[in-house]
Amino acid sequence: CLSRLKKYNAQVNAFIEVQKEEVILQKAREAENRINEGINNKSLDGIPIAYKDNFCTQDLTTTCGSNMLRNFTSPFNATVVELLRDAGSIIIGKTNMDEYGMGAFGPVYNPHKIISDQESNIDKYEKRVAGGSSGGSAAAVASGMCFAALGSDTGGSVRLPASYCGVIGFKPSYGLCSRWGLIAYANSFDTDSTSLSPKLRAFNSLISRNSPLNKNNPLDLGGLRVGVPKEYMVSELSEPIIKLWRKGISFLKSQGAKIISVSCQNTKYALSTYYILAPAEASSNLARYDGVRYGYQSEKDSSQLINDNDNDNEDTGLLYANTRDEGFGIEVKRRIMLGTFTLTTGSYENYYLRAQKIRKLIQLDFNKVFQGVDVLITPVTISISPKISDYNNDNFLNFYVNDIFTIPANLVGIPAISIPFGKLHDYPIGLQLMSQYGDDLTLFKVAKILE
Ligand code: GLN
């Protein structure tokens, strides 16, 4: 992994910070000793894992891809980081991401051609994106710089880059992983949000155990009901992706699954609902970056206009404004403006509350559908990875549509997984499976067959 990292990271831009080589090698030796001696073995001994740079780590900086946290080092590790470390894995580094998880475009290059072509050919084609916001994590796995990487999936940020880069991307049921130490974007979507109690976890595993697939031979799909939601056939979908989708459906059918056409009527509102609710939560979460408690602080002299001690508040106001102006990038500012707007009196009822009600309707749709099917199969993305040159600041709205297939699972809280399913124009592309809340295990099993 280290040698691949050294070879490709300069072109792929997957890592923001890499763990010191001597630390990695020391941990690897310790793990190797444990394995050789056969005592105190741990389940993930020696496995190199990378973390998206919004998971807090004590040893490495946690920047969230933002100037605001450029030099920030957390005093604690995120729970998921601790758990994976205690299981014997090695932190290889922190991966690149769209600032605060907002975007689908990513500052990372798609590693696909970079690693498959001769080095001399690299400049001969136009570079494509790895996707975002967990683009660094997907690209790091795809180029063999680590065995696995953690991302966060608020609206598809794990599944979308996984599809573009040709790796598996999994978003668990909401609440299944702790979000302690994950820097918040939108709390009610971030999967890894607030954890479930042990009692609810037990209930969840019961759902999984009762599903037909887990009762039968795990590699036989007989009895499994696969739903194809009509509403996912959107006009943005290109013919080759529709073909790929059909191929996935026929494959599951050939393995003994029963295919059923289903309808989630309100799904057509999912994208706009998400882009009202997520920025609203983000605007509130990001209010904490005030230039005082931690993170970036503007060096502009905010007292230059006011020298009167009675005007302390205005001083602080200027510091706050300057810090946020210099610390946040354009997409984050756009989300803060949008979110603040929808939360103000006057627009709150028309936008925020209405979006909450629609979210509920979308949840009810899915609940109903899962009474008749075990999993849903859909595309993950509307296209293969776009070219870097396709995106500029004037066409950002066109890019929100990239999330059209991933967002419903976040609104509803259900598990979803993106599985590599062939190539188009020589670039990888995935298919998505979704299952009922808590039924993550069935998802894994069907995914394994589709893979
Ligand atoms: N494109 C989505 C957004 O910008 C992705 C969010 C995510 O999953 N972190 O909101």
Give your account of this protein's structure.
The protein is an alpha/beta fold. It folds into 2 domains: 2-219 and 377-450, Amidase signature (AS) domain (Amidase signature (AS) enzymes); 277-348, no CATH class. Helices cover 40% and strands 12% of the residues. The chain has helices at residues 2-12, 21-37, 79-86, 111-116, 135-142, 159-165, 198-210, 212-215, 239-254, 270-285, 312-327, 330-343, 348-369, 396-400, 407-412, 440-450; strands spanning 15-18, 48-52, 90-95, 148-150, 169-171, 225-229, 258-262, 375-379, 416-424, 427-435. The strands form 2 sheets. It has a 6-stranded mixed sheet with strand order 5-9-10-8-6-7, sandwiched between helices. Strands 1-3-2-4 form a 4-stranded mixed sheet. Strand 6 (225-229), helix 9 and strand 7 (258-262) form a beta-alpha-beta unit. Helix 10 crosses helix 12 and helix 10 (270-285) crosses helix 13. The radius of gyration is 23 Å and the shape is globular. The chain starts with a helix and ends with a helix. The mean pLDDT is 90. Bound molecules: glutamine (GLN). Residues 101-104, 133, 152-157, 185, 278, 403 line the site of glutamine.
Question: Secondary-structure blueprint of this entry?
Answer:
Layout: H1 2-12, E1 15-18, H2 21-37, E2 48-52, H3 79-86, E3 90-95, H4 111-116, H5 135-142, E4 148-150, H6 159-165, E5 169-171, H7 198-210, H8 212-215, E6 225-229, H9 239-254, E7 258-262, H10 270-285, H11 312-327, H12 330-343, H13 348-369, E8 375-379, H14 396-400, H15 407-412, E9 416-424, E10 427-435, H16 440-450
Parallel strand pairs: 2-3, 2-4, 6-7, 6-8
Antiparallel strand pairs: 1-3, 5-9, 8-10, 9-10
Helix pairs in contact: 10-12, 10-13
This protein binds glutamine.
Glutamine binds at residues 101-104, 133, 152-157, 185, 278, 403.
